[in-house]
Amino acid sequence: MSIDTSKVATTTSGAAATAKPNRAGAVANWADERLGLGTLAKKNLRKVFPDHWSFMLGEIALWSFVVLLLSGVFLTLWYVPSMGEVHYEGSYNQLRGIAMSEALASTLHISFDVRGGLLMRQMHHWAAMLFIASMMIHLLRVYFTGAFRKPRELNWVIGSLLLLLGTLEGFTGYSLPDDLLSGTGIRAADGFMKSIPVVGTYLSFFLFGGEFPGESIIPRLYTIHVLLIPGLLLALIAAHMLLLVYHKHTQWPGPGRTEENVVGFPMLPVYAAKAGGFFFIVFGVCAMMGGLLTINPVWKYGPYDPTKVTAGSQPDWYMGWPDGALRIMPGIESHIFGYTIAWNVFLPIIVLPGLMFTILLMLPFIESWITGDKRDHHLLERPRNAPTRTAIMVALMTFYGLMWAAGGNDIIAIKLNLSINQISYFMRVAVFVGPLLAFFITRRWCISLQRHDEQKLLHGYETGIIMRSPEGGYSERHLPISESAAYTLTARSREEVYDPEAQTDANGVPAPGGRLAKLRGRLSTLWYADNVQKPTAAELEEAHHHAEHEHQLQGAMEGRSADGHQFDGHHAVEGETLRGDH
Amino acid sequence: MRFLNRSAGRLSRHRRGRLAGLMMLVVGLLLTGSMYAAFAPAQAESTDTQAADVEAGRELFLIGCAFCHGQNGEGQYTVNGDQIGPSLVGVGAAAVDFQVGTGRMPMAQPGQQAPRKPESYSDEETAQLAAYVASLAPGPGIPDESDYSLEGLTAEEQEAAIVRGGQIFLTNCTACHNFEGAGGAMPRGGYAPTLRGVEPKYIYEAMLTGPQAMDSFSNGNITPDEKRDVIAYLGSLEESPQYGGFGLGGLGPVAEGLFAWVVGIGALVGFAIWIAAHTTRSSKKKVSA
Amino acid sequence: MTTTHDSQGGGAGLEQSSDGHHLPALPPEEPLANPGLPEHTWRPTDVDPKAEKRAERQVAVLFGLSAVCTVLFVVGYIALGIGDNHDTVLNYGASTVVLGTTLGGALLLIGIGIIQWARKLMADHEMVEMRHPARSSDEDREVTLKALNDGLEESGIARRPLVRNSLLGAVGLLGAPAIVLLRDLGPTPSQAAAADPESGGLERTIWAPGMRIVRDVVGTPIRASDLEIGDLVNAEPEAIFPTEENGYPEIEGVELNVAKSKAAVILLRMDPDEIIPGEGRDNWTVDGITCYSKICTHVGCPISLNERTTHHLLCPCHQSTFDLADSGRVIFGPAARHLPQLPIMVDDEGYLVAQSDFTEPVGPSYWERSHEDIGDQGEADL
């Protein structure tokens, strides 16, 4: 069985391997005697990875992180994390002689007096944007396909932590150049901290080493940005990858693919080549963007000055949604016993992101509690086959998207000729109504798609051929779908609504559980009850009988050239004529 | 003028493509020509022609402006007290030159925001209107080219002026007009327009007169020299190359986020689809090796 | 255990099962049996030596072009000037654009070449690998549990609660040094206020009675007569600019930035008739010239986006809007408190000066702040 592939494999690599067998063998032997590489590599060199474009989204994040490490190290060679004041004397004329922090002066030095420095700065920034964006689309893929289910819940948690840390890493990096935009961001962050009840001002004074802006924030953020968070990110990425290898990758259901196997290409050579090639592509795209698209032109913003501000002061996109929440929040403040709680800041920027992150973290556990599903899952589900799950994420995405739009309300206002006030009023309602609408629409949409699948399975696909019967009636001809397509459609598990009433003990007394069990029952009904279950063998049989009956009615056309097969796109039509006799 | 400054001042240090020089020459010539056309009549006037201008301006005013601004430029109000057009008494020639010269006036309909549009009046007619409104009451006059030109300063002084102009710009202007002069949003659908490509004279007049909702920055607020420096800074921004490549409209992080998603993620997902896509298949079978 | 699917054997489900593949037996409710992996089909490059050669050349050309890009990168690095003599292409910074596109090209071409190699030339037989449950086997669990129990038993941790509890307590207490050590990150707000009784802390700024209001950037004092109706001045206290006597400011460095971040103000001259004077604020203005803190009460961005016609001041960060004709009241947006107003007057020489410091803290709200919005409490804080 395996002879065949190994032969093919050796034909491509054989020439190189036979050139210096002894030298290579000696090195391998030396290493193996010390490291035991043979045992380690035995299992993994030909480890199988399934092939699907959506499985590579996480790789974008991994590779852009590598780009971040490389370009980041380059930047540290010149960057000076200091708020000490200097007068700029570099090449950029429009700022010459201006007092600024050493941080910005060194950033300008990198941009204008180090060849390739501006390129590296822009690559670093673009890669950071792509890093977080790709983590998010990877997260969406994992959620929509059900890849977070047992046994992968912990990897979901690790992934969510990576997203959180990536965002913090991005924010600290955004602050380091100490230009007008960074400083405005830090100033807002100071306001955020001060809004925290009881300890807010203490947090602010400790972080800034006294009153804002102080002279400590840049060096402190620098340590966090280049040491603390990257270290945590590296450790978590390693854990994420190890768990991926241990669990083996999920796969789409299909002929030959089961819960017990994984079908795909071996690590060596195909997957190594594809992953390695993709690294170069991600690196290349970052370089292209860094070379062609200006990002954060600090020289135009100038040094941070607590009295200056620019229109369009926004955080980077990943901080845009809490910023949007901050913008549309009504100005509410409480005064109790001489103390102030600034709800208008505390709720949208401290509580809301924490709440959203907790929800994100808990999604796998909430779902498994509702469904009671404790089985291992290695086959993915199509989003339509989990309508409620899909709808939950679409609702969350809608919430995120509306908040995001609210965060760019000034740019939307000038580009679309709208009023920022009207946008804000609209968003105040839309962030509550929009997700609900999205939830119901998505859920029903998914169920409709399920019905369509069932139709295809039971009655075949629509050929688009309209037949006229001898009596003059018209009907569209349906033809059965292929065996593998039919199997793929049925390769999903049957779902059962959890019924708390049914949980009785041996004596017929309802099992304890009370209100919680009832809630779970109700949620489970919401989750599953409207879903279309796949047909049983008997139903399928009956439908096929029915179809055969219809075929007999249309049988006069059977075998004729215009029986529909020719034009349904599923067959080659070469050599067939429309009206010709056989 | 900008063109001359380039050869005399700091910008000469920039090496440019050959075409860029030619372009600047053409632009400079056009600019000089159009400014000459704009100013020549104003400079070569006697009191007689001034009086004639005022009269001609009044004629034009009664036809084109009086409906909103009143027969004598006193302003018009609706019955419930809403202003249709403000009083023009004392706004001076500078305001007329700005509003009419940039096509903002006459407006298509009364409103808070007067968008820039193609001018309705010729340069001569604009000058006549300005002369008429200036005759209503004393007000800021149209600035002379020497008011906003760095000509006559040494290279070092020019550079220092640009640096100072940048700081004044970032303190007083960027809050509304954005750090690149790209414009920004104001309450209730208003906006601060872009400053890019706006002629120096109009920037000067806008600061001087505070058109529409803009605050005024009179000479007691920002001195004429400081106004000149701001204009020089904006000029230097426009003349500087885009050091980092395409500037994304100078709109800041929102545009950057959009590009990261559309260009970056778009391209990379496209590559991922290609990498995982099935290759073409042959109907032939391989002869077993 | 890794096995390879037999590509030439037809690949029907039944055959596979007999080959040791684990296709589960069909349960009664399952409508269709797993048909097994479809038959392998070949690519043109597998069966046509010409296509194979072509693909090989294609990949090699991609790698070759990449090398060309790398050479161009080095050439560009050496040839294109930056700094004072910045070369440009199409009005873009030549160095950045050329280095970026050549580096990007070099990397992309390598990546595309490798992928093309994998797609066209590397074996593309799908392989099947069996999964193992993530959980450990029962035997393993048993052995582990026993080892664990043995170890714990030998340590006696269960039998000696005194040792266990005192250790837990001691280790738990070690959290204290970690927290205590962070104490010196900065002073507390009250310490900061005590260290600088004039202007330190959250409740005071550097403004003092008689301090001149000067233009930002240039630092020149302002006469009331300098300003026309509609003029907006971004202003600062005189103390942060060099004095005439000694040529350097009274404060500098961190202190200066702290002072600036609290004391920045805007001066706006309005038509006195349009101003709705706040209670007790009748003499806070000079001929329609009013002075407000420039620091937004929401999260502290500096604000100066004023609409001259409406006196509405907008914050560019989160769009809080304040009415400057009406004591800086919030009329839109997330800010909850009015903008603090600085009482001003004219000194002997005719320059605008502060009557006093702000009468309330400037900037964002915080826990210890006891003042309430004038909208809620009238003149209590005025």
Q: Would you give an account of this structure?
A:
The complex is a heterotrimer of chains A (582), B (289) and C (382). Chain A is mainly α. Helices cover 61% and strands 6% of the residues of chain A. Chain A is built from 20 helices and 8 strands. In chain A, a hairpin with a 2-residue loop joins strand 5 and strand 6 (339-341). Chain B has a domain at 47-142: Cytochrome c-like domain (Cytochrome Bc1 Complex, Chain D, domain 2, Orthogonal Bundle). Chain B has 11 helices and 4 strands. Helices cover 33% and strands 13% of the residues of chain C. Chains B and C meet through helix 7 and helix 11 of B and helix 2, strand 2, strand 3, helix 4 and strand 6 of C. Chain A: Residues 27-253 form the Cytochrome b/b6 N-terminal region profile domain. Chain A: InterPro entries: Cyt_b/b6_N, Cytb/b6-like_sf, Di-haem_cyt_TM. Chain A: It catalyses: a quinol + 2 Fe(III)-[cytochrome c](out) = a quinone + 2 Fe(II)-[cytochrome c](out) + 2 H(+)(out). Chain A: Its EC number is 7.1.1.8.
Strand content of chain A: 5-15%
Question: How is the biggest beta sheet of chain A arranged?
Answer: 2 strands, antiparallel
What's the order of the H and E elements of chain C?
Answer: EHHHEEHEHHHHEEHEEEEEEEEH
Name the CATH architecture of the domain at 57-381 in chain A.
Answer: Up-down Bundle
How many domains of chain C?
2
The overall strand count of chain A is 8
Unreliable stretches covering 5 or more consecutive residues of chain A: 1-18
Shape of chain A: globular
Total DSSP E strands of chain C? 14
Rg of chain A over CA atoms, rounded to whole Å, is 30 Å
Calculate Rg of chain C over CA atoms.
38 Å
Name of the level-1 CATH class of the domain at 57-381 in chain A = Mainly Alpha
Number of helices of chain A: 20
Domain Cytochrome b/b6 N-terminal region profile (chain A): 27-253
Cofactor (chain A): heme
Keywords (chain A): Membrane, Transmembrane, Transmembrane helix
EC number (chain A): 7.1.1.8
